[in-house]
Write a structure and sequence with these properties.
heterotrimer, A: 381 residues, Butyryl-Coa Dehydrogenase, subunit A, domain 1, 4-stranded mixed β-sheet, globular, B: 302 residues, 7-stranded parallel β-sheet, elongated
Chain lengths: 381, 302, 257
């Protein structure tokens, strides 16, 4: 067992950090304030750096890097801008990855390559008004009509919704089948007649990442756009979410690290004014706990990422990583606001944004409760 | 000890930096001779021996030719030390002379301490003293590190010097900076922004303070290179050299190039979170604070 | 075209420096290391020239312990084709004359058309090595370059002078250039290039094979500068400090009535 990043992983961290600090940081605050998604900055530039296809093999125009590299990249982006982190996570883990894992060669040529190159952006539609993490309750329907599928239904809270060109969505293809078995995955292109978007959600955090409703009204797509086999949708969705959890966990570690860095910076500046040693020691202890929890979460992420790259099972590990990292992010960002006191509560300082951004990591890609269900049920299986 | 001082002529003008070379030689108690590729129309204010090569003939930048001319003088004079300014002319030519003579070159000397020369290390965060192992040596002096001598006036005795050396580099002329609207050189109060301002929006905080004080705002090079502030407001060696009555450095760490452009200011206030930043060395008052918090409070109270 | 770019690994200048046990250099433990900023401009310019030329071969050279290979990997990921690591655990103790000689000795029989270096290192800051290498190889060298263009064997550059003016200079290959801030914006090494970098040749050569001269200078002591006396340090509550500062300005300067 080796607890050391490779030279490539270190280079990737340096590169993404320097990109995030130089290019993203100057506008993170204003994009949050204005709820502005800057595609050129938050996606096209990631594509130029080769981040949009980081884990896919070179034959599909990916960079051929491993999951740990991907986790590092997401952490570094999210450390500065969690909205950019989720843009990449939704695109790569949720749209490109299921096509890579379950798509036909034709689908990979047609969709995965432009996604990996970042010529197109991806999004993932699973959640419905009455089916959140319970994918088995999917109501959206897909009915076969000759060479086409006809989609009807809505998907909500879709990251990159309205901006992405390629959507991986799930619909019920067999109403008779047992709950989990009648669902199938589909690839839908933006601008398909019958496919439209709701208004942008007004959110608490990750405000420069667009979230929209997807609306399908007699939307006809070619029969070959089914992803995997008919009825395989639930499995595809679950495997996709396993990978997505590594991504969200990485994002959470990044948010937490960003908050810790701000708190440390503030404490250093304050140190010299602060005559009250006990108060400073209190702060030091808090910082120590924050750093320790972040590192624990990070290693859980690396562990899950390592298993994913090594082809080992990782649903349990990714659920643990996601649970630990998201709760750490929430805790650490809240403490960072507390350490900065009144300043921390103002929008002049980034920690309040980080606290708002952290909250979503406990909710999407399966709430903390769902992660506990996943972990607990594995234990008593 | 004998020194050969290399004066500079640029863009049709004699540069005043030769006086600092003389001050340095004085401080060492050394004899000196001087060399310049210049013109008899404009000679340094100096009463010793001056080797003069015609700039019309040898161009302002032609390193191989200037090297040959200097080596010729070195052969005549046998100086212990050949002294340049640490300038675009000096640092370009000095290593060539040092290599030809197989001697040490000591770059960017800021001081003389116990007979040894002192140079900066790590952006001036540290200093080192150097022991020379060759008989002669070449040195370049940091701009502003040595003061002109008190009694340096006179008229030199020019000795013309020639060479038939040819260079492989053609000097085509100069590109002047487009004249800007702001002449910081005339401002009595300057408030400058450095890398520490963090983001372009914070230029406003600095500009507001400048306005409240009735002065101009300036910037250090990193801020100008990031295009947060226009080049014509840049203070430092590659920008403007200023000498206001009050200079307020906000979030400027104090790179040598910046210090060289502002250290003649009468009164310097630095606002910086890092109390060890080199700017503290030239500051009359160092305010240890985050400029984003402190400056608005100061501006409000003025 | 054969291109060489010489880089150095230096500490992050924001580091808290300490003095080493001998008192002749900074303590190299616990520092974050990166590519010398000026050398990054050199690498970018070399890669741009390589891209312009198409058929060309770009070598990056770095002198130092095994640790410098990480910085070399970055240069390879930015687009250099191969690396020459001149292994030397005591690189800090070599003076510019020795460093220049090592590079010149390496480059001597390789017929590089263009060589780039940074204009100086951020730590030692001598600004000599590039020009020394040019002299040692007997090729023209131009320092402080802020603009570079190559056309069919002829190179036009601008040198940055003081006061904002630039000198326009023309010369032919082979030639050496030392790069100054402003010449370009170094690219980020892209993911695919980072992954490809590990497959590129990185040859290690002991410096003893190339170092054939003795040093001409050595550091007798390194130390922190004394703080200028009289400088007043103010800290504490912003409002109080602002009041104190205003009083001082009224008292000591003529600008605040």
């Amino acid at each position: 067992m080796k607890f050391e990043l490779t030279e490539e992983q270190n280079l990737i961290r340096d590169m993404v950090r320097s990109f995030a600090e130089t290019e993203l940081a100057p506008s993170t605050q204003s994009r949050d304030e204005e709820e502005h998604f800057d595609r050129e900055l938050m996606f096209d530039k990631l594509a130029e750096l080769g981040l949009t296809g980081i884990i896919f093999p070179e034959e599909y125009d990916g960079a051929g890097a491993d999951y740990i590299s991907y986790a590092i990249a997401l952490e570094e982006l999210s450390r500065v801008c969690a909205s950019t982190g989720v843009t990449l996570a939704a695109h790569l883990s949720l749209a490109a990855n299921p096509i890579y894992l379950f798509g036909t060669e034709e689908q990979k040529q047609k969709y995965l390559i432009p996604l990996a190159l970042g010529e197109k952006m991806g999004a993932f539609g699973l959640t419905e008004p009455s089916a959140g993490s319970d994918a088995g309750s999917t109501k959206m329907s897909a009915v076969r009509d000759g060479d086409e599928w006809i989609l009807n239904g809505t998907k909500i809270f879709i990251s990159n919704g309205g901006e992405a060109e390629v959507y991986v969505v799930f619909a019920r293809t067999d109403k008779e089948a047992e709950k989990h078995h009648g669902i199938s995955g589909f690839i839908v292109e933006k601008d398909t007649p019958g496919f439209s978007f709701g208004n942008k959600e007004k959110k608490m955090g990750i405000r420069s990442s667009p979230t929209r409703e997807l609306v399908f009204e007699n939307c006809r797509i070619p029969a070959e756009n089914i992803l995997g086999n008919e009825g395989q949708g639930f499995k595809i969705a679950m495997e996709t979410l396993d990978g997505g959890r590594i991504a969200v966990a990485s994002q959470a570690v990044g948010i937490a690290q960003g908050a810790l860095d701000e708190a440390v910076k503030y404490a250093k500046e304050r140190k010299q004014f602060d005559t009250c040693i006990t108060r400073f020691q209190g702060v030091q202890f808090q910082l120590a706990d924050m750093a320790t929890q972040i590192n624990a979460a990070r290693f859980l992420v690396y562990n899950a990422a390592y298993r994913a790259s090594a082809g080992l099972s990782y649903s349990l590990e990714s659920a643990m990583a996601k649970l630990m990292a998201s709760e750490t992010a929430m805790k650490v960002t809240t403490q960072a606001v507390q350490i900065l006191g009144g300043y921390g509560y103002t929008r002049e300082f980034p920690v309040e944004r980080m606290m708002r951004d952290a909250k979503i990591t406990e909710i999407y890609m399966g709430t903390s409760e769902i992660q506990r269900v996943v972990i607990g049920s594995t234990l008593i299986k | 000890m004998k020194t050969l001082l290399i004066a500079e002529y640029r863009d049709g003008k004699l540069l005043g930096s030769y006086q600092e070379l003389m001050g340095f030689a004085d401080q060492l108690g050394a004899e000196c001779a001087m060399f310049i590729v210049g013109t008899s129309e404009e000679l340094p204010d100096y009463s010793g021996k001056l080797y003069l090569a015609d700039v019309e003939k040898y161009a302002e930048y032609s390193p191989a030719v200037h090297k040959k001319l200097i080596l010729e003088v070195v052969k005549n004079e046998q100086p212990d030390m050949i002294v340049f300014s640490h300038s675009s002319y000096g640092w370009d030519l000095a290593p060539r002379i040092a290599y030809s003579l197989q001697t040490a070159q000591i770059s960017e000397v800021v001081d003389v301490k116990g007979g040894e020369l002192v140079v900066p290390v790590c952006n001036s965060k540290m200093r080192r003293t150097i022991r020379v192992k060759s008989e002669q040596c070449v040195v370049t002096l940091q701009a502003g590190a040595f003061n002109p001598p008190d009694d340096g006036t006179g008229t030199p005795q020019p000795v013309n010097i020639d060479t038939d050396a040819q260079g492989r580099i053609s000097f085509l002329g100069y590109e002047e900076v487009e004249p800007g609207g702001v002449d910081l050189g005339k401002a009595e109060i300057i408030v400058s922004a450095g890398r520490g301002i963090g983001k372009p929006e914070n230029v406003e905080i600095v500009a507001d303070l400048a306005q409240k004080l009735g002065g101009e705002y300036g910037a250090s090079r990193p801020v100008v290179d990031s295009e947060w502030v226009d080049h014509n407001r840049q203070v430092g060696t590659t920008g403007q050299t200023v000498s206001p009555k009050l200079y307020v450095a906000c979030g400027i760490s104090g790179a040598i190039q910046h210090l060289a452009g502002m250290k003649k200011s009468e009164f310097v206030v630095a606002i910086n979170t890092d109390r060890d930043a080199p700017i503290g060395e030239v500051a009359d008052v160092l305010v240890v604070a985050d400029l984003k918090e402190f400056i608005p409070v100061l501006t409000e109270k003025l | 075209m054969k291109i060489l770019v010489c880089i150095k690994q230096v500490p992050d200048m924001e580091s808290k420096f300490k003095i080493d046990g001998n008192g002749t250099w900074y303590d190299t433990n616990d520092l974050a290391w990166r590519m010398n900023e000026y050398d990054e401009y050199g690498v970018e310019q070399a890669v741009q020239l390589k891209e312009q030329m198409g058929d060309s071969d770009l070598t990056v050279l770095c002198i130092g312990s095994a640790q410098v290979k990480e910085t070399m990997k970055k240069a390879l990921a930015m687009g250099c084709d191969r690396g020459a690591h001149i292994e030397d655990d005591a690189a800090d103790s070599h003076d510019p004359f020795e460093i220049g000689s090592i590079i010149a000795e390496y480059a001597r029989d390789k017929e590089f058309d263009v060589i780039f270096t940074g204009m100086q290192s951020q730590d030692r800051g001598s600004g000599q090595v590039g020009i020394l290498v040019a002299e040692m190889l007997d090729i023209p060298g131009v320092s402080t370059v802020v603009d570079f263009s190559y056309d069919d064997g002829t190179i036009n550059v601008k040198r940055e002078l003081e006061g904002g003016i630039k000198a326009l200079v023309k010369l032919n290959t082979p030639a050496l250039f030392t790069c100054q801030l402003g010449i370009n914006t170094p690219r980020y090494p892209t993911l695919p290039n980072i992954m490809k970098a590990k497959r590129k040749e990185l040859l290690t050569i002991p410096s003893s094979d190339l170092l054939k001269v003795a040093c001409v200078q050595e550091t007798s002591a390194i130390f922190f500068p004394e703080k200028k006396g009289g400088g007043l340090v103010l800290e504490g509550d912003s409002g109080d400090v602002a009041d104190q500062l205003i009083e001082i300005l009224k008292d000591k300067t003529a600008v605040l009535a």
